[in-house]
Amino acid sequence: MTRSVPLRFRRPPLCAASLLALSCLSWPAGAQAPAAGAAPPVPAATRPATVAGTATTASANTATHVLTLRQMGAYGPIALRGVDHARRLDIGVRLDEVVTAARLKLAFSYSPALVFPLSHIKLTLNDEVIATLPLEEKEAGRLVTREIDIDPRFFTDFNHLRVQLIAHYTLDHCEDPLHSSLWADISPATTLTLNTSRVTLPDNLALLPAPFFDRRDNRRVTVPFVLPAGADGATLRAAGVAASWLGALAAWREARFPVARTVPAGSDAIAFVTPQTIPAGLNLSAIASPIAGPTVSLMPNPASPDRKLLVVAGRNAQELQTAVNALVLGKAAMAGNSARVESVDIGKPRRPYDAPAWAPTDRPVLFRELVPDPQDLQVAGSNPNPIRVNLRVPADLYDWTRSHVPLNLRYRYTAPPTYNDSVLSIDINDQLVRSYRLRPLASTDDHNVVSVPLLSGTTASASQRVGIPAFRVGSNNQMQFQFHIDSQKTGLCTSTATDVARAAIDPDSTIDFSRFSHYTGLPNLAYFANSGYPFTRLADLADTAVVVPDAPTATDQEALLSLLGHMGKWTGLPSLRVTVVPTTELDSVRDRNLLLIGTGSGAATLEKWGKSLPLLIARGKTEISLRDQRTGVWSNWLAGVREDPVTPVGRAILSADGPVAALVGFESPLADGNTVVALTATEDRRVADVLDALENPGKVAQMRGDLTVIRQDQVDGLRLGERYYVGDLPWYARIWVRVSAFPSLLAIGGLLAGLVVALSLFWTLGRLAARRGGS
């Protein structure tokens, strides 16, 4: 049995599955094989929105990974209902690992009303049966745990674990396949433990982005960067472009980039090297000696030969930028262990709001553009899982007319024979929008069943124009379409098969944001935490500068790289035009939006800007504005921009022993209308608390206003300062926005308008009467 993978390499033979045959795991130098078909990637509809860190232990050549139910694609407990109901879980195995042992710990409960000799749970992996678990009467109705050893030979790159309930509640031939007694629930306590051995990959740039990013791996992407302590802004910018590239690839997996001064052991890493900054222990003679220009090379990690080190080299920082631009734009043309870069054209500047990860807002968007595979829009069964469509849009969309978001939905389904409880429910972000009853098959739909059976059948189609309430929509959304096709029974012994129903959302369905303007109130850290706005307004970050301390620590550099990794995740594009400067060069970027690392000299910059900030951490004390938060009104973006009545009542100066980190947003003191978002903390190492919070969806949901304070596991979002407005609205719309914030003015305006209309009508009718009387 041979495991095939994408790119040009074939998995080792089956002997790699045995710990006694580890000699088979080494790749011969230059070994290549023709590309072979690989299983499709995990569909976006089954991916969790955010993947928590997997419990992993490792030795030199082996590792143990514990995958949770959520990490295998389940959004929560798995509910199995009916005679024959199944759910699929998705498991990926990295290109540089081979499974040597696997154990599934299945935690489940089931109905006590079953006929137990006929009921069981069937488990398959890639269509191979791995176990059948009998359901015993004595354990019914309570949580049961079973551990199943899985033959590692069944694992490939992309794997599908299928859990199927086969259950009966009566020995009668008259059995309702959807009876309420037929149930089993798979608990989130279910885990899959994989023992893996490392495969030594060849030093070939054609493998990129593996092993630094592997699309088979659902875990967080963690790639150490090797940077010199005195790295200048240009070097940090080059590293930031690489981090944003990996962040764009990682997407929902999240990404983190710790910084080291020497090559770290036990991990794949990326080193940025000039002749003056070669890390200790790194010998470049095997790939490029001396450095003769922009070069990208792949070599064994000298601290761990079974790992890889990607070396981005140049004679100066400008050549490092050229090399990294070639890496993120031209990796498809790279091969061998080293590539010399002659020149790179990074293309035209991006237009506002054209980020690849965002849905276009200048035209209706087809659903086929929002899913990686149209198959993700189809489901089977009478009560299937929801069809999920992810949708990211700019955070500043605004409609001053308060209309809905137009959704033109087309769908098909197996039609019920009569009107019953078959419905389609449309949700967005787990909030119900509309629910439609599915109509039965009309007689005119089935007129050619005999003569042309392939052109007709029992599938009905329908379309609906739905208005999604604007306040239900944010910058990062998920639309859910839940079909329920009810069975129809006309007698005691009449039943319907459970697996014949089909339903699909047409890929030509559309959602349209083209009528909305770009206008919003800032600062709003909810926009930043969910989509990077306003920095991501230009996907290449051409109007953004990252300001780092003059002498940044490894933690400061990690914050820079991780934040740019988030920018790549939010836009789907490397930050090719971002600027990185130390605080001493702040005036050179005064016309840009600023992302500031507020430690060291960065903290001194914040202190200079002073009491206009909602929070100031300096010299061991914390100074914060005070305000009655009950007066604040949080506004959703499409619901409209509303003035928050800012009523600060004072300012407090505190001195506390506990650690505090914060995100602070405010209008740039250097240029009106520009935004500053600063990361600040009572201790430099506490900046990592902000990075941790940005990877936690529960904590991201608490970020808002102009100040987010992070104290261990507690996150508080506050609005303490004044708002300013950015965007483009017609003059009459601006007047309406301002006036609509004051209901009393609207009432007076309505009375005056009514009086003007009444007087005009009175005058017009009087003139008409006078003309008639004169004639």
What does this 3D model show about the protein?
The chain crosses the membrane at residues 745-765. Tightly associated with the cellulose synthase catalytic subunit. Residues 1-31 form the signal peptide. It is a single-pass membrane protein. The chain is an alpha+beta fold and 775 residues long. 15% of the residues lie in helices and 31% in strands. It has five domains: 43-198, Galactose-binding domain-like (Jelly Rolls, Sandwich); 205-340, 2-Layer Sandwich (Chitobiase, domain 2), CATH 3.30.379.10; 371-489 and 496-510, Jelly Rolls; 518-728, no CATH class; 742-774. The strands form nine sheets. Strands 1, 2, 3, 5, 8, 10 and 11 form a seven-stranded antiparallel sheet that branches. Strand 35 (615-618) and strand 36 form a beta hairpin. It is globular and about 80 Å long.
How do the helices and strands line up, and which of them pair or pack?
Blueprint lengths: L54 E4 L3 E7 L9 E4 L2 E9 L4 E14 L9 E6 L2 E7 L9 E7 L7 E9 L16 E4 L4 E8 L22 E2 L2 E2 L6 H18 L4 E2 L2 E2 L8 E5 L21 E7 L2 E10 L3 H14 L7 E3 L23 E3 L11 E3 L6 E6 L4 E2 L6 E10 L8 E6 L2 E7 L21 E10 L7 E9 L17 E4 L4 E3 L4 E6 L2 H7 L12 E5 L5 H18 L7 E4 L10 E6 L2 H9 L5 E4 L2 E7 L20 E7 L6 E7 L7 E7 L5 H8 L2 H4 L6 E5 L2 E5 L5 E5 L2 H10 L2 H32 L1
Helix pairs in contact: 1-2, 1-4
Main attributes?
42 strands, alpha+beta, cell membrane, cell inner membrane, Jelly Rolls, signal, transmembrane helix, c-di-GMP, Chitobiase, domain 2
Please report the number of helical segments. 9
Question: How many separate structural domains?
Answer: 5
User: What does the overall shape look like?
Assistant: globular
Structural class category: alpha+beta
Subcellular location: Cell inner membrane
Protein name: Cyclic di-GMP-binding protein
Organism: Cupriavidus oxalaticus
Subunit structure: Tightly associated with the cellulose synthase catalytic subunit.
